[in-house]
Amino acid sequence: MGYVGETLMNLLHQTAFFNLTWGNYVMIVVAFVFLFLAIKKGFEPLLLVPIAFGMLLVNIYPDIIVSPEETSNGVGGLLYYFYTLDEWSILPSLIFLGVGAMTDFGPLIANPISFLMGAAAQFGIFSAYFLAIGLGFNDKAAAAVSIIGGADGPTSIFLAGKLGQSGLMGPIAVAAYSYMALVPVIQPPIMKLLTTKKERSIKMENLRPVSKLERILFPIVVTVVVCLILPSTAPLVGMLMLGNLFRESGVVRQLTETASNALMYIVVILLGTSVGATTSAEAFLNWSTIKIVVLGLVAFMVGTAAGVLFGKLLCLITKGKINPLIGSAGVSAVPMAARVSQKVGAEEDPTNFLLMHAMGPNVAGVIGTAVAAGCFMAIFGV
Question: How far apart are CA 368 and CA 373, in angstroms?
Fold first, then answer.
């Protein structure tokens, strides 16, 4: 009986109940909230479901992301190997390949002024950089944190890895992906606050047709120009443009379908669960993480506001031909931010279709965030 009792006690103490802290329970509740938002409310479930489930797993079983050096048999946890692909910049680059293959760059080509709105939205990144330094982060950590303002998870992970900020990569990635998913919640109040009903009701002229030659030349020219100026952006900009060249060339349909479907979704699963698994209670519930989350939100809100305000300026210059709402799409959350521009505009006038106009600044924002990351890498000699 003593042996049986001892065995039962050993089994009992192996359950998670005897190993969880109050912090683990807090993070488990947060995971449930994320799952609710994703499944019930439909807030970007492709992002939030894997992130939330990774968060749930690591706070029940922390060893799922343990490194080989911390184990007795030299074998790391499952999600450790997924996360290593994040640190090596493999998954972020593959995400950009898929985004390029899925995205129509035509609206940006047809309306080059969209580049300016995409650039204006990057103001949130650089303002957050100086604010982060003021809050005690060193220069590289401040750069890694500020890029959250672009609402671009892959670029946030990429830059944190390149700048040697692996310790901050988890909170930065979770904050970036969370704000990407919550674009429909965060952006509309800012957009409505900074615009009038008349401005939100502006109908824009149809975009001109874009030729096949323009579509093919665009990714090639952008790659050459951007990568010559900022070679460190090649993994992101290069993969983004390669994916788009697959799409527009029309001669590699199988590669386009693979990059935009099977490969993209596989990478989202690996990246989402590994990002979620960085949110163990001991790593996430501290003042540094709270500051990162707040700074990221501030950066994202400032970027949204800057895009809208620049849209208002262009509206004034063009005598009412540009709806300022499309400026908010200058952040990098593709295509969520463009959809929000469409939704807010349609609330004022259901016949107003801004989606394709908003896709121009949205695509420009993807390129702009990658360029901002390249600027930081150039500054720090990475």
Answer: 9
Between CA 152 and CA 173 the distance in angstroms is 9
178: closest CA among 144, 142, 148, 155? 148
Question: Are the beta carbons of 27 and 57 closer than 8 angstroms?
Answer: no
pTM (two decimals): 0.89
In a 13 Å sphere around the CA of 30, the CA atoms on its Cβ side amount to: 22
The C-alpha atoms of residue 137 and residue 143 are separated, in whole angstroms, by 9
Cα separation, 43 vs 184, in Å, equals 8
Please state, in angstroms and rounded to a whole number, the distance separating the CA atoms of residues 379 and 63: 37
pLDDT in tens, 56-67: 999 999 889 999
Q: Check residue 1 and give its pLDDT.
A: 56
- Which residues, 6+ apart, have CB-to-CB distance to 94 below 8 Å? 239, 263, 264, 267
Choose the weakest-confidence range: 1-10, 28-37, 211-220.
1-10
Are the beta carbons of 344 and 192 closer than 8 angstroms?
yes
- Structure-derived torsion over alpha carbons of residues 331, 332, 334, 335, reported in degrees to the nearest 10: 0
- Taking residues 195-216, report their average pLDDT: 93
Determine the residue type at 338.
A
- The contacts of residue 317 (CB under 8 Å, 6+ apart) are none
| Closest to 330 (Cα-Cα) out of 158, 121, 17 | 121
